[in-house]
């Protein structure tokens, strides 16, 4: 529905998700590499690679964000979450050097959203991650605003392709 | 709450090792609940938009896709909106669903996109809306038909 009367629930701001926001639900479907810190009895069928009845401690798996958030505990008894590549040291340097160069859609369409959610997992690099997210947005903002205001009758699909979904929402 | 009950049972029976699995199952249940609630809520928002776009009588093919509770919600929303609109404008009422964009002129040129049959305007004249015919009509009469896609505003 394109009309001005349909006002869907917008995604949450920062580290909060909006429960009813369809965008946040899609975002939390992204998978994260995790390592289990305890045993999960009788759930072996979730882990296709082995035929065990349980998921043993120390298994490396990929779980969606909603499950990781739900199971994560501060004392780290249950899960430990690894940072996806885009938020690690190497990529952070790239972003700090020049934010406009990167194709954010290819990096997973929810760069900003997922990055904000990663801050829930108490990584020691949290302040740097938050800083990089902000600086990247600030760096790309000017060009995005420019293109959106001046795109009369032109084909903007090439530009839009390289944006992540937060920026594509016009 | 269910997870608490199961966890308490697990602890009581000395099977605290099951707790992570119980938590995982509970997360899945909550996820399903979230997806369903968001879906139903989004449907509601679209129905509300329909009232503003189509008017108070929905076309049959739309009503066909609505469940009984949604139809009931829609009629109650209609009533609330109507009583609100009646209370505006010093007791006379004001139709908020008209003129959603500031109007530029009193009469507009419209072209008919589909056959819609006969259409009566305020002074009694009856216009036959046949596909591709053009008419010069009062704006407020056309607004709803434009939104429904029957007429098209011709900008010359």
From TrEMBL, chain A:
UniProt domain DNA replication complex GINS protein PSF3 N-terminal: residue ranges: 21-72
Family indicated by similarity: Belongs to the GINS3/PSF3 family.
Keywords carried by this UniProt record: DNA replication, Nucleus
Name of the protein in its database record: DNA replication complex GINS protein PSF3
GO annotations of cellular component type: GINS complex
Nucleus found in the keyword field: yes
Listed InterPro entries: GINS_bundle-like_dom_sf (IPR036224), GINS_Psf3 (IPR010492), GINS_Psf3_sf (IPR038437), PSF3_N (IPR055221)
Function: The GINS complex plays an essential role in the initiation of DNA replication.
Localization annotation: Nucleus
Keyword rRNA-binding: no
GO annotation terms (biological process): mitotic DNA replication initiation
Subunit field text: Component of the GINS complex.
TrEMBL record, chain B:
CDD domains: GINS_A_psf1, GINS_B_Psf1
Gene name in the database record: gins1
Family: Belongs to the GINS1/PSF1 family.
Domain DNA replication complex GINS protein PSF1 C-terminal as annotated: residue spans: 104-155
Cited InterPro entries: GINS_A, GINS_bundle-like_dom_sf, GINS_Psf1, PSF1_C
Subcellular location: Nucleus
Keywords: DNA replication, Nucleus
Any single Pfam family the record assigns to this protein: Sld5
Protein name per Swiss-Prot or TrEMBL: DNA replication complex GINS protein PSF1
Residues covered by the GINS subunit domain: 21-88
Organism: Cyclopterus lumpus (Lumpsucker)
Subunit (UniProt): Component of the GINS complex.
Function: Required for correct functioning of the GINS complex, a complex that plays an essential role in the initiation of DNA replication, and progression of DNA replication forks. GINS complex seems to bind preferentially to single-stranded DNA.
GO cellular component: GINS complex
GO BP terms, alphabetized: DNA strand elongation involved in mitotic DNA replication
Top-level division of the source organism's lineage: Eukaryota
